[in-house]
């Protein structure tokens, strides 16, 4: 739905691209409940005059929900599939370099999130083709509706997209996203606020106009996206689902996505969250860690300072993954499947975290490269030693599968994995490599120094900065 200056190497790809364009996904649960209705006959597309009139009517209602007027006009135009894909490609080329895209591809391979022969960008673009109902271009202050959507479905899309446009006027969405660069987890949390706001307003508008809508049209609208979602890896679809569904529930101050009454967030809560944004996916997944002052849990800032590297080696990217993304990393390979959009219970039952990652405190990832060789280093900090032990055990259980994927990525070259948990403190270090030997990896790790900041003070679990990516004991 949104379109902004995020880098694939710094953000989950699904949140970077797919979640910023409104899709039938945003109301797929509602649609699936009413598939027994007959779809209404195809209608002729709206004229530009009709589109502008309907958009203005819906805008007045949305402004009423928030108790304030937008600060300026929002243009609205019709477009088609090729028009959208051309726009998406232009935006991608303007904001990302081939090196950026390759960095995130390599990161996902090195974490075992995708097989080495999967083209993550290609899969994402294919998914986008079936997911787009409309999109808002903040650079042009223009909202585009796909021309094949009319009637109630189009009005629902307009309600969602105009909410983004108004939020952008009130809260400067792009400016906030720019300030979060280099931290995928914080960007994902903010995307959840943005999309949650859109879903919340959309739900209210839908319920107030339910008698005017043919809900079978909604089911038909989301049917075209089912195959792409069923074949997408979790690294794409889970963050996408989370920013919509968990973002909306976060604004209602609950972790439950079950919202059969279509209750909506209070306008004051939406304004508060945009003014003081959540700093992690942990706070989105566990709303009490944001809303409850006694349970407030701000993330630790983990830094990995990289000293002088051996000749030819360079830092490709650095990032913070967060609880949701680390839950993807430790998800058993046998359970890594696509999503069945025609199964509402499966949608409502998606788990975005678990015992192995619920005690997340902070993390930092560094990816190094030399020619075709790659070394990934992940420093993670946990609330308690028990939490670190659970994450360590979950990774250990995946070791054989991850080593097989790394070996395939390396081809005829060397590959490996190193996993360490400090005997004291609550920290886990993961190192993976392809195309380089273990002795060279040890030399590279010697250039790393990890530090942790909490409450404005620099510290580590053992009370000092430490080299080599592992705390001194």
**How would you describe the shape?**
globular
Query: Strand-residue fraction?
Result: 15-25%
Number of domains: 2
Q: Indicate the multimeric state.
A: single chain
Whole-Å distance between the termini? 48 Å
Largest sheet: 5 strands, antiparallel
Number of helices: 20
Helix content: 40-55%
Structural class label: alpha+beta
Number of beta strands: 13
Task: Supply database-style keywords.
disordered N terminus; disordered C terminus; about 475 residues; alpha+beta; 2 domains; 5-stranded antiparallel sheet
Detailed description of the structure:
This protein has about 475 residues and is of the alpha+beta class. It has 2 domains: about 15-285, no CATH class; about 300-320 and about 355-465, no CATH class. About 45% of the residues lie in helices and about 15% in strands. It has helices at about 15, 30-35, 50-65, 80-95, 100-110, 120-130, 150-170, 175-180, 185-210, 215-225, 225-230, 235-250, 265-275, 280-285, 290, 320-330, 345-350, 385-395, 400-410, 440-445, and strands spanning about 20, 75-80, 135, 140-145, 300-305, 315-320, 360-370, 375-380, 415-420, 425-435, 450-455, 455-460, 465. The strands form 3 sheets. The chain has a 5-stranded antiparallel sheet, with helices on both faces. A 4-stranded mixed sheet has the order 1-3-4-2. Strand 9 (about 415-420) and strand 10 (about 425-435) form a beta hairpin. Helix 3 (about 50-65) crosses helix 7 (about 150-170) and helix 9 (about 185-210) packs across helix 12. The longest helix has 25 residues, at about 185-210. It starts with 12 loop residues before the first helix and ends in a 6-residue tail after the last strand.
């Amino acid at each position: 739905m949104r379109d902004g200056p995020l880098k694939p190497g710094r953000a989950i790809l699904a949140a970077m691209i797919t979640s910023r364009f409104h899709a039938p996904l945003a109301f797929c649960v509602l649609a699936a409940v009413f598939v027994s209705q007959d779809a209404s006959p195809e209608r002729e597309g709206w004229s530009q005059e009709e589109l502008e009139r309907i958009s203005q009517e819906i805008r007045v209602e949305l402004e009423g929900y928030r108790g304030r007027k937008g600060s300026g006009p929002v243009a609205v135009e019709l477009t088609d599939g090729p028009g959208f894909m051309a726009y998406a490609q232009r935006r991608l080329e303007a904001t990302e370099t081939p090196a950026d895209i390759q960095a995130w591809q390599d990161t996902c391979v090195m974490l075992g999130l995708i097989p080495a022969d999967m083209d993550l960008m290609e899969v994402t673009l294919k998914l986008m083709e079936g997911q787009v109902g409309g999109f808002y271009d903040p650079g042009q202050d223009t909202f585009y509706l796909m021309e094949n959507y009319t009637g109630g479905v189009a009005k629902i899309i307009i309600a969602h997209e105009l909410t983004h446009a108004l939020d952008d006027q009130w809260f400067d969405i792009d400016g906030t996203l720019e300030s979060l660069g280099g931290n995928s987890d914080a960007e994902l949390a903010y995307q959840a606020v943005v999309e949650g706001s859109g879903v919340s307003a959309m739900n209210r508008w839908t319920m107030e106009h339910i008698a005017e809508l043919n809900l079978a049209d909604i089911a038909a609208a989301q049917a075209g996206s089912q195959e792409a979602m069923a074949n997408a890896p979790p690294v794409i679809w889970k963050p996408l689902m989370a920013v919509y569904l968990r973002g909306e529930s976060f604004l209602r101050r609950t972790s439950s996505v079950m919202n059969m009454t279509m209750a909506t967030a209070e306008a004051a809560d939406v304004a508060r969250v945009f003014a003081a944004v959540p700093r992690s996916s942990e706070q989105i997944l566990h709303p009490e860690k944001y809303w409850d002052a006694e349970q407030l849990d701000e993330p630790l800032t983990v830094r990995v300072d990289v000293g002088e590297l051996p000749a030819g080696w360079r830092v490709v990217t650095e990032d913070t993954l967060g609880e949701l993304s680390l839950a993807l990393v430790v998800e058993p390979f046998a359970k890594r499947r696509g999503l069945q959009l025609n199964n509402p219970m499966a949608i409502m039952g998606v788990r975005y975290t678990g015992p192995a990652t619920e005690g997340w405190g902070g993390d930092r990832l560094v990816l190094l490269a030399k020619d075709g060789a790659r070394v990934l280093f992940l420093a993670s900090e946990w609330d308690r030693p028990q939490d670190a032990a659970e994450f360590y055990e979950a990774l250990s259980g995946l070791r054989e599968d991850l080593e097989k994927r790394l070996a395939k990525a390396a081809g005829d070259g060397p590959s490996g994995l190193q996993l360490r948990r400090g005997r004291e403190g609550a920290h886990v270090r993961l190192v993976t490599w392809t195309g380089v030997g273990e002795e060279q990896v040890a030399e590279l790790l010697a250039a790393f120094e990890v530090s942790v900041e909490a409450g404005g003070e620099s510290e580590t679990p053992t009370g000092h900065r430490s080299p080599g990516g592992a705390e001194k004991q």
